[in-house]
From TrEMBL:
Source organism: Conger conger (Conger eel)
The protein, known as: Corticotropin-releasing factor-binding protein
Boundaries of every Corticotropin-releasing factor binding protein C-terminal domain copy: 185-309
GO biological process: hormone-mediated signaling pathway; negative regulation of corticotropin secretion
Subcellular localization: Secreted
Disulfide bonds listed in the record: C60-C81, C104-C141, C183-C205, C239-C266, C279-C320
Family that this chain belongs to: Belongs to the CRF-binding protein family.
Domain Corticotropin-releasing factor binding protein N-terminal: 52-177
Subcellular location, principal: secreted
C-alpha cells in the first residue's frame, strides 16, 4: 500500500471526538477510529536506516505505527492521555520506558495495555485473549515497569498515562518483533489481503477492520482434507455444534464478542465468497478446536460512499447494512 493512499485515507475520515471527563480513565471515553487514524497523518512512514532511531515528542492523544523513541513532557496537568500503537499484522510490539518522572503518590500513572480500548470497548475481547484482563495491564506505579520490557500479544497495544505536574514526563522506546502466527489483529489499512492460520490450537483469532468494507473469502480450509473426520457437522442453524468455523461479524464497536454475526462458514471452501459489511467495523473470526490446522484467506477493500448509500437504501434498520 502506498504512503499516499494511506495518508489520503486517513485524511478522509476525520472526526475526532473530544475527550471528555477529566477525572475518568480514557478507556471509558469516546475516541473514534476515524479520529485515531487521523493522528497517523503526521506519522510519515519511511524506510529508515538500521542505526537511525526515529525520535519525536508524544502528544497526550497520539498514535504510533513505527519504531522509535518518543518522549512526553507535560506542559500542564494532563489527566487523560492515551497513545495507540499499531504495527503490521505479523508484528507484535515491545515497549520500554526510560527517564520516567511521574509522581505516583499524587495519582499520576503510566501503564501499558495489551490491546486497544476504543469507544469504551476492548480488542481483543476477553474471550479471545490468552491472558485474563488484569494481566493485560503493566503499571509503572505498581511494579516499576521501567526495568522490564512489555510485549504485546498482537499488533496493537496502548499506553495510558496521567501526569499532574508540569515538566514531568517519560520516554518510551517502541520496537517491533515478528510474530509467525498472528492471532487477533486490527488492520492498519482499509484494504488488503490476509491469511490467518491456526495450527492445532484450541484458540480463536479475530482480524478486525475498523471501516465499512467488502470482504471476499478466497479460501477456507477447516480440518484435515485427508481425513473422514470432517470438522463441520451442521447440527444447528449457523455453525452451532461445529468446533471449527469462521464467522464474519459486524458492529459499531471493536469488541468481537459484542458484534453481530453476518455469516458463518463451517465448510471448507475454495471459491470466492463475498460480502459487504456496512458497519463501522467488520471482523473475520476463526474458531478453532485444536484438532485441525485451520486456515482462511481473504481480501478486503473499503466500501465507497455510493455503495454505502445503496446498502442503506435496501434496509430500514439503521444499525449496519449487510449485503
Ligand atoms: C472460541 O469461540 C467459541 C465460540 O465463540 C467458544 O465456544 C470457545 O470457548 C472459544 N474458545 C476459546 C479457547 O476461547
Amino acid at each position: 500500500m502506498s504512503l499516499n493512499f494511506r495518508v489520503q485515507l486517513y485524511c478522509l475520515l476525520l472526526v475526532f471526538s473530544a475527550l471528555k471527563g477529566e477525572g475518568r480513565y480514557l478507556q471509558e471515553n469516546e475516541v473514534t477510529a476515524e479520529g485515531l487514524f487521523s493522528l497517523l497523518n503526521s506519522e510519515v512512514k519511511r524506510e529508515l536506516s538500521k542505526d537511525f532511531i526515529y525520535r519525536r515528542p508524544l502528544r497526550c492523544l497520539d498514535m504510533l505505527s513505527m519504531e522509535g523513541q518518543f518522549s512526553f513532557s507535560a506542559l500542564r496537568p494532563q489527566l487523560n492521555c492515551a497513545v495507540y500503537l499499531i504495527f503490521e499484522p505479523s508484528e507484535v510490539i515491545s515497549v520500554e520506558f526510560s527517564s520516567v518522572d511521574i509522581d505516583c503518590s499524587r495519582g499520576d500513572f503510566l501503564k501499558v495495555f495489551d490491546g486497544w480500548f476504543l469507544k469504551g470497548e476492548m480488542f481483543p475481547s476477553s474471550e479471545d485473549h490468552a491472558l485474563p484482563l488484569s494481566e493485560r495491564y503493566a503499571e509503572f506505579c505498581d511494579s516499576g515497569v521501567l526495568r522490564r520490557t512489555v510485549r504485546s500479544s498482537q499488533n496493537v497495544a496502548m499506553i495510558f498515562f496521567r501526569i499532574h505536574s508540569p515538566e514531568s514526563g517519560f520516554t518510551v522506546t517502541v520496537k517491533k518483533l515478528s510474530n509467525p502466527f498472528p492471532c487477533n489483529i486490527i488492520s492498519q489499512t482499509r484494504e488488503g489481503r490476509f491469511t490467518m492460520v491456526i495450527p492445532h490450537q484450541h484458540t480463536n483469532c479475530s482480524f478486525s477492520i475498523i471501516y465499512p468494507v467488502e470482504i471476499q473469502i478466497q479460501e477456507l480450509t477447516l480440518g484435515r482434507l485427508d481425513s473422514n473426520d470432517t470438522p463441520a457437522k451442521r447440527s444447528a442453524p449457523g455453525c452451532g455444534g461445529a468446533g471449527d468455523f469462521v464467522e464474519l461479524l459486524g458492529g459499531n464497536g471493536v469488541d468481537p464478542s459484542k458484534m453481530f454475526p453476518v455469516a458463518d462458514l463451517c465448510y471448507s471452501l475454495s471459491g470466492p465468497a463475498q460480502l459487504k459489511v456496512g458497519c463501522d467495523s467488520a471482523v473475520m473470526r476463526l474458531v478453532s478446536s485444536g484438532k485441525f490446522i485451520n486456515r482462511v484467506t481473504f481480501q478486503y477493500r473499503p466500501l465507497d460512499r455510493h455503495e454505502l448509500q445503496t446498502l442503506k437504501g435496501n434496509h430500514v434498520e439503521d444499525f449496519c447494512f449487510i449485503e
